[in-house]
Amino acid sequence: NISKEAKDFVKVLLTKDPQKRPTAEEALNSPFLASAREINRKRNIRSRAVAMNLVQATMEQYASYSTLKKLALVVVAHKSTSEEVGFLRSMFQNYDHSQNGIVDLPEFKEALSDYDYTEEEMEDLFNALDIDKSGELHYYEFLAATIEAHGELTEQRLAEAFDRLDCDDSGYITVNNLRQFLGESAPQSYLDHIVTESDEEQDKKIHYDEFLKLWSSDDDKKRQQYMHKVASRRQNGDGIEISNGFSEIPTIVADLSLSMASTEEQAEEGELDDRPEAQMFRSNKHTSIRALSQTAGAFV
Fold it and tell me: Are 244 and 233 in contact (CB under 8 A)?
């Protein structure tokens, strides 16, 4: 499966006469390598575009979730390791242009400039992701909104999220649990709404079975629909065809995650949940999301 061009290039490099053999600079500037570099450039652009589409699709799906489901994903995000976060850490940099661990609305809109969103749609999406209503997107909020881009979450991770929200170990989630999680400043009406929204038994408690029902077996199918929707919004200024299908996503995600894991920064900083802020979140069931948002910049 070796092309004629590749074979010819190797033959030229094996020329015995050094006077006729191309120099290193000539070899690097050869049409064959120039063509290969262009192919790789287009492949990289395409891979990043597909990954960005996936992130946007996951964000749009997240925006449709109930508030309790969003809070659960905040827990999952905080408890995720660098391996579980994977390429999402790199994708966050597409939004966080100031590299301070926080995305404001102008940065968010700039990141979506390749997509055909109206101003109102971008603002609505931003507000849906801003779970602590600070007017900014912290890294953990970005992860909460996009962690499902890696695929379906295991029940073990969902059970850990339920356990964190059920901070008094009563076996169910109540308004008082949510107040501890969100902080004392959370309005009572907001807390009541979160419970009522997911309380099928109408007993003012969210039992584990009710909690699990927040995740549907057709979530992946819905994500694919969002993926097609997002891809149709993309304005292709590079002249490179971008697929809107799911078939190549696992390979692209794996490649980007591997690339991210191999960076020097990743190696130096280690696992996300080994940092002091994440250890605090994991070990202290009474730490509020507001307290954690104040140190979110350290997670990037």
Answer: no
What distance in Å separates the CA atoms of residue 4 and residue 10, rounded to the nearest whole number?
A: 10
Task: Answer yes or no: are the C-beta atoms of 140 and 296 closer than 8 Å.
Answer: yes
170-174-178-179 Cα dihedral, nearest 10 degrees: -100
Please say whether the beta carbons of 160 and 167 come within 8 A.
no
Percent of all residues in the chain with a pLDDT value above 90, rounded to a whole number: 51
Amino acid at position 254, single letter: A
Count the Cβ atoms, other than its own, within 10 Å of residue 172. 20
Sequence-distant (6+) residues with CB within 8 A of 68 are 165, 173, 194, 195, 197, 198, 206, 211, 214
| Rounded Cα gap, residues 238 and 179, in angstroms | 48
First to last CA, the chain: 43
Task: Write the single-letter amino acid at 201.
Answer: E
Among the listed residues 274, 280, 272, 244, the one whose alpha carbon sits nearest the alpha carbon of residue 51: 244
Low-confidence ranges of the chain (pLDDT < 50): 264, 266-283, 292-300
- Encoded amino acid at 107, one letter: E
Q: How does pLDDT run across 98-114, given as a tens digit for each residue?
A: 989 899 999 999 999 98
Please provide the size of the chain in residues. 300
**For residue 208, which of 258, 160, 153 has the smallest C-alpha distance?**
160
Torsion of CA 77, 83, 87, 90, to 10 degrees: 80
Residues contacting residue 137 through CB under 8 Å, at least 6 positions apart: 95, 102, 103, 104, 108, 126, 129, 130
**What is the Cα–Cα distance from 3 to 9, expressed in whole angstroms?**
10
**147 Cβ contact list (under 8 Å, min separation 6):** 73, 76, 77, 80, 84, 85, 88, 153
Q: Whose structure tokens read 């660098």? A: 82
Helix, coil or strand: residue 95: coil
